Amino acid sequence: MHRCLLIPVVLQTICIYIDNYPKRGRDLLAMALVCRGFSKTSLDQLWREIDGLYPLLTKMPPDMWSGPLARHNVVLARAITPSDLGCFKAHAHRVRIYHGLKDADDDTDVPITVYKALSFHFHDQPIFPNLVGMSWTNEEEIFPYITMFLGSRIRRMELPIFDDPVHNSMLPTLGKRCPLLINFNLRSDVFQYSLDTGRQVKSLLSQWSQLETLSIHHLPEDSLRIVVGLPHLRNLRLKGWSYAGDNYGNTFTPAPGTKVFPALQNLSITTTSSILCINLLKAATSCPLVTFYLSLIGSSLPNWRDLFTTLAKSCDKGTLTTILIDGTDVQGEHGHGPNAAYELRLLFPFTNLTDAAIHTSRKFDVEEAFVFEMAAAWPHLHSFSMTTVKGTLSFSSTTQPDSPS
């Protein structure tokens, strides 16, 4: 065997390459058996990312299980003892990314009895000591056992939130056990949080001033003032953002002395009201946005002129390169709109724009001369599309602009 294969970087590159193939498990295990020099790197890659606990359960003694262990037959026959966890721990320390199975009806997940049995041995230490990223299962009864997985090395986390006191009481633990988190995705099917849940989410977000990426469903009202002031936040995705009425959107003001979105580069908003988005942007000054995405849903009629004016006033003219707006689901806005030049000229100061798509239920009236005016205003465009009265208008800087047909 050539000695170059024992160079760590070379061996790791080979393992990563193998990891991208369907039979990665078989091939990485075969590499680990070649020699002692290959073993550690190959096994580290093999166990780096796992789905659910089942792969590690296969490394525990067979007499622990009632019948042959299989994904559809995980039944404990006796209690788990410390000696049963030797091989389990030997591989658990290699795990860097853990994916809980998100479908509560997925019968490949292990039963709650296994989580409960393991919790007796991992109540004061993480089950994966070197974990850096995790996404948690949607199964509500499993949520209390998340504490077994929380460790100080975790940097990325995705988890659901359940609007009830038992689960809310556990949220502060996340901030204490994962102080270095920089990427947080909070999923929820709840349209509007209870007051207690809102307070817990606000408390949780306030503990992570170092957050760089945040994705959250139905952002609680009080939490927004925490989010806009996060000094390192670069990516923000607000999904299902709506409130009962628009009073909050109309009166939003950041806390005194707060610099709003000082580092934000990518903003994605799905909302029922353009007013919420407009007033959020009004609070920002010279926001270094690179990408702006807005999806409007429901029946609140948008004010496109105010939106484009606010975007132009709040964002750095030299950084914004992508504007994507989807308002095709807005009800009550069908029919022809005014001349597009009146509103789209408000976006001309963004001279570095490379991609733009504006699709609304209202169809803009676009004259041919204005098509060439847009091409001149945005010389770096790679792609552009917009809904017009004559169909979809699209062009790029590499082709002659076409009139809508």
Structure, explained:
- With 405 residues, the protein is α/β, with parallel strands linked by helices.
- The chain has helices at 8-19, 24-32, 36-46, 54-57, 86-92, 112-119, 165-168, 171-177, 195-206, 224-227, 247-251, 274-282, 304-314, 340-344, 368-377; strands at residues 49-51, 97-99, 133-135, 156-160, 183-187, 213-217, 235-241, 266-271, 291-298, 322-330, 335-339, 355-360, 362-365, 383-388, 391-395.
- Strand 7 (235-241), helix 11 and strand 8 (266-271) form a beta-alpha-beta unit.
- Helix 1 packs across helix 3 (36-46) and helix 8 packs parallel to helix 9 (195-206).
- The protein is globular and about 75 Å long.
- The protein starts with 7 loop residues before the first helix and ends in a 10-residue tail after the last strand.
- 30% of the residues are buried.
> What is the tally of beta strands?
15
User: What would the principal axes of the Cα set say about the shape?
Assistant: globular
Low-confidence stretches: 244-249
Radius of gyration: 26 Å
Q: pLDDT average, as an integer?
A: 82
